[in-house]
Amino acid sequence: MYTGDSRRALGEAFAEAYRIEAGEENFRQSTFEAQQDRAWSAPVWISIGMEPALRSDGTLLKTVEEEMMAVACAVQNMHLVASAQGLAGMWLSNSVFKHPLVAQFVELAPHGRLLGFFFLGWPAIAWPQGERRSLGEKVRWAEAQ
Predict the structure, then answer these.
(1) What is the C-alpha to C-alpha distance for residues 29 and 122, in angstroms, rounded to an integer?
(2) What does the buried/exposed string (b/e) look like for 21-33 if buried means 16 or more CB atoms within 10 Å of the residue's CB?
(3) Which strands sit side by side in the sheet containing 88-92, from one edge to the other?
(4) pLDDT (tens digit per residue) in 59-108
(5) Which residues, in sequence order, are CB contacts of 106 under 8 Å at separation 6+?
(6) Which of 13, 26, 63, 129 is most deeply buried (CB count within 10 A of its CB)?
(7) Residue ranges per domain, the chain?
(8) Homologous superfamily, domain 6-124
(9) Is the pLDDT of residue 145 over 80?
(10) Per-residue pLDDT tens digits for 4-24
(11) How far is CA 136 from CA 11, 89, 132, in A?
């Protein structure tokens, strides 16, 4: 988890990952600086990764798909808890947020996989009021024949 000044180093990691991905021909200084500043856009950043359990021979105990589904469920639960506390959050999982350089920065094990970051903070706008339809309008029950 990155809060306070630790976000400065996180922003630097995002920026360096961008530099690597962009290459010399596509590099833009303004985008590099935006990546440096990105970590300041929320007070809390949580790295999301998986370090699958391995057997003694080094093979995976479970499939990568099973591991990823477990992580997704955990992130969904975290998002629900945050929302219940009035916090806003979002899982970012593209580009620099999964880059190997950033995975190294967060000290993920070599057999691990960075799946992005969940950022968290107070909403910038009023929390929207939901309008829920009845369960009968959303669910179609299969009937035994």
Answers:
(1) 30
(2) ebeeeeeeeeebe
(3) 44-50, 113-121, 88-92
(4) 889 988 999 999 999 999 999 999 999 999 999 999 999 999 999 999 99
(5) 47, 49, 114
(6) 13
(7) 6-124
(8) NADH Oxidase (3.40.109.10)
(9) no
(10) 999 999 999 999 999 999 999
(11) 46, 30, 11
Mutual angle of helices 29-38 and 6-26, in 10-degree steps:
160
Closest CA to 117 of 31, 28, 19, 13: 13
User: How many angstroms separate the CA atoms of 34 and 32, rounded?
Assistant: 5
pLDDT recorded at residue 124: 87
pTM of structure: 0.84
Amino acid at site 30: S
For the beta carbon of residue 18, count every other beta carbon within 10 angstroms.
Answer: 23
Cite the DSSP H helix spans in 27-54.
29-38
| Cβ atoms of residues 15 and 36 within 8 Å | yes
Give dist(CA 97, CA 118) in Å, integer.
Answer: 10
> Could you tell me how far CA 46 lies from the centroid of its own chain?
7
